[in-house]
Amino acid sequence: MDEVYSSPQVARMLAKFGLHDLEVFNFSHIPVDVVADKLHLNQVTTEDESIDLLLDELRDYNDLDEEFPILLRNTCKFGDAYLFVWPVADENGTVTNVKMRCKDPLTTRLFYSDEDPMVKSFAIQSWEEGAKATLTVRANLYYADRVERYEHKGKVPQDPKRAKWALYEADGLPGIMPHDFGQVPFFHYRTTRQYGTPEHLNAYGPQSGINKLITSHLATVDYQSFPQRYALTDPTADRSGSQGNDWDEEHPEDGGDPERAVQSQLDSSPAAMWDLSGYKSVGQFQAADPDAFMKPLDRYIKAMAQVTQIPMHAFDDRAGDAMTGASRREANETLYDRVESRQRTFGATHKRAFEFALFLYDEEADVSVKWKPVRKIEDSDAIPLIQMKRDLGVPDDVLLAEIGYDSADIDTWMSERSADIPAEPIDVKGPAVAE
User: Which of 201, 187, 232 is nearest to 345 (CA)?
Assistant: First the structure.
C-alpha cells in the first residue's frame, strides 16, 4: 500500500530515494504466520484399513504433505483458498487416481446460490497464456453436471458485450464436458463465510504507519551521517590579508606559490583555529532525531498486536522472556481459540474433499480429520495439575493430547489398552515438557 504524505515535495523526495521498494520491514505477515504455523494436520483416517491405504495413496500422489500447508497459509493470507478434486481415468474410463490441486483466490472463485448460500452454484478458474500478440485468456466453468471451457484471444475488454469468448477445444477435448458427480468439484477453505477475511486484515492500518515511519527515517539517515553545513558571510570583514591555502604539486593551478608557501589557515591539528576570512559564523543543520521515528514504531507494533489479537511476544519475543509457562499460555488464549476455530472449519472442508475423492473411486466411508493439539503443557510446573486431573477421572487420551502427543500415538496406546495388550506406563511429563 502506498504511503500518503501531506506534502507532494516530501513524496517526491522519498520516491527519489527509492524507499517505496523496500519490503523488509513487513510486520503484518506475523499474524498470518503465527496462525498458519500452528495448523498441523496429523491424520486423515477412516475405520476401514483398506480405505486408509487408499487415502495414503491420495496423499502421496498429490504431495499433500507439502501442498496442504501452502493451502492453509494461503487461506490465512487471502481469507480463502480452494481444493480442486478431479478423477484421472484410463482409456476405458476407469478411475485410476484422483487429482487434488490447491488453488488460490487470485485465479479461482466459487459462487453460491442466492436462495441457499450453502449450496454451490458453480466455480470459475481463469488464467492467461502467452503475452501481447499471443495472449489468450482461458476460463473454465465447473457445474454440478458439466464443465464448460472457454478462451478469449487477446485482452478481455471491460465491456462484456464486446468480449469474444469461444469454446476451447484446442487440446482435442470437447469444450463442454458433462459429468455425473452431482456437485461442483471445488472445496472452499475460508476463515469466515462467505469468502473469508485475511488473518492480518486489521494489521493493514498499523503497517501503513510503520511503512511511513521507516521510509521517513531512512530518508534522514544520510543527513545524520553527512550533515548539511552552512557558513554566514560578513560583508564588513577585512579580506586584504593573506588568504593562505594548501598547495599541491600535482595541482598547481589550485593556487599558492611553492617558493613563497604560506601556512595553511585550515589546520586540522588539535586545538588549532581555522581562520575563515569573510565568514561571520559557520554551523551545521541538525538532522531529525531518530527517536522521533523509533519510539512511535514500537507503539505501532503494539497496536498491531492489539488489533489482530495476536500476543505481543509473537512480534517481539523480548516481551515473553520473563513469562512463565502459565502466563504465556494465558497470553496465548485468544490465539489458541482462533487456531482451534480454524481447525474445525478447515477440517470440515477437508473431510468433504476426501469423501468426494473416495466417491470418485466408488468408495464410501466416514473420514476423520485429526489435528495436532494446540493447547499443550510445556512447563514442568503444570505436571501436578495433570496428575490431579487424572486423579479426578479425566481420560488419559485427553491428558496425553494436552501434553502434546500426536493423536496417532494416542490412538495406538488406547487401542492397546482396550485389547488388553500390555503397554508401557505412560510418562505424564510428555515430550514437550521443558526440563
Answer: 187
Interatomic CA distance for residues 221 and 417, integer angstroms: 67
Residues with Cβ within 8 Å of residue 404, at least 6 apart in sequence? 373, 376, 377, 378, 430, 431, 432
- 95 SS3 class: strand
| Burial of 382 per CB tally in 10 Å (0-12, 13-18, 19+) | middle
Q: Name every residue whose Cβ is closer than 8 Å to that of residue 81 and which is 6 or more positions away in sequence.
A: 71, 72, 74, 75, 102, 103, 104, 105, 189, 190
Identify the CA nearest to 353 among candidates 14, 100, 31, 131.
Answer: 100
pLDDT over 60 at 368, yes or no:
yes
**Three cell numbers written together for 392:** 479426578
Whether pTM exceeds 0.90? no
Higher per-residue pLDDT: 115 or 242: 115
Other beta carbons less than 10 A from residue 80's beta carbon: 24
In angstroms, the CA 125 to CA 151 distance is 12
Q: What is the mean pLDDT of residues 240-265?
A: 56
How confident is the model at residue 433, as a pLDDT?
44
Report the relative pairing of strands 229-233 and 279-284 from DSSP bridges: antiparallel
Please give the C-alpha separations between residue 310 and each of 252, 276, 318, 325, 337, in angstroms, as whole numbers: 68, 60, 15, 17, 11
